[in-house]
Design goal:
alpha/beta; Rossmann fold; 8 strands; 52% helix; 294 residues; 12 helices; elongated; 2 domains
Length: 294
């Protein structure tokens, strides 16, 4: 028999999680601080709990998807709920920090629960589909025990290690890549608008060049992992031509009064690397200079 599951938090993502569980045939109870958000789920077959304690009592697995770990603590750490958590599997799918995940896991184990921490690498429309990706950290035993339920949430659920902080750490790393691309897109749009370039043209040229960028990112990660920072026969791009072109971007942005707060940070990293003698090294050499004081 499939375990009973409760979902705490039914915003857009929590609702998607609950719907996926219902569609997979799990007896699903939901709770949300604003009860009106649970109405569509009740119509879909979920039981609506009147309190967090009621939701916890109804389940063998408690899925939490709220704002952050502080919000989770506010829900679970009251005496009546903490006493009811014993023997349950808590699957935390709330975004947060690695140390927040470790602290939440310690609390759960101290109160007799099993704990898994997950990072959802998808928008709600991907939940329950073959392409839904969720990174999960925690004991392999707990992951294997919950694998069928996790599979209902997405077809690409991965156990990435027993350290509870790993899922959120990797989530942050991947989000850094995403935000780098999105802020880069914002800079591109600003330049195009300043120079009266049609944004449809930008979209066409980005589509044509995206595979080149993907290749550069993959190569940077590979070379950094191997510590291969000096230029060699396999170098795709060294710092020198990048920095020359980057100076042209800075000059354009200055002339057009485009905000330089982000790119000036890039310039500082370039300058530290060049001052340390890396001008002609592979672009991956810049990885040695992030996080160091200027």
């Amino acid at each position: 028999m499939k375990p009973a599951i409760s979902v705490l938090g039914t915003g857009r993502m929590g609702s998607a999680l609950a719907r996926a569980l219902l569609q997979a045939g799990y007896r699903t109870t939901v709770w949300n601080r604003s009860a009106e958000k649970t109405g569509p789920l009740a119509t879909a077959g979920a039981t609506v709990a009147a309190s967090v304690r009621e939701a916890v009592d109804a389940a063998e697995i408690v899925v939490v998807n709220v704002t952050d770990y502080s919000a989770t603590a506010a829900l679970l750490h009251s005496d009546d709920v903490a006493s009811a958590i014993r023997g349950k599997l808590v699957l935390e799918l709330t975004s947060g920090t690695p140390h927040g995940a470790r602290e939440a896991g310690r609390w759960a184990v101290e109160h007799g629960a099993t704990y898994l921490d997950g990072a959802i690498m998808a928008t709600p429309d991907f939940i329950g589909t073959d392409h839904g990706t969720i990174l999960v950290s925690g004991t392999r035993q707990a992951f294997d025990a919950g694998k069928e339920m996790l599979g209902a949430l997405g077809g690409n659920v991965q156990h990435i290690g027993e350290d509870l902080g790993l899922a959120n750490a990797l989530d942050s790393a991947l989000l850094a890549l995403m935000w780098g691309a999105l802020f880069g897109a914002l800079h591109s749009v600003a330049v195009c608008r300043a120079e009266k370039i049609d944004l449809d043209e930008l979209a066409r040229q980005w589509t044509a060049s995206a595979s080149v960028v993907d290749g550069l990112v993959a190569d940077l990660i590979k070379r950094t992992n191997a510590g291969r920072f000096a230029s060699d026969d396999e170098t795709l791009s060294s710092i020198s031509p990048h920095y020359s072109s980057f100076q042209h971007l800075l000059e354009l942005m200055q002339a057009r009064e485009i905000d330089r707060s982000v790119v000036d940070g890039y310039d500082g990293i370039f300058r530290r690397a060049i001052a340390a003698g890396h001008l002609h090294d592979d672009f991956a050499a810049l990885s040695q200079f992030l996080g160091k004081a200027g």
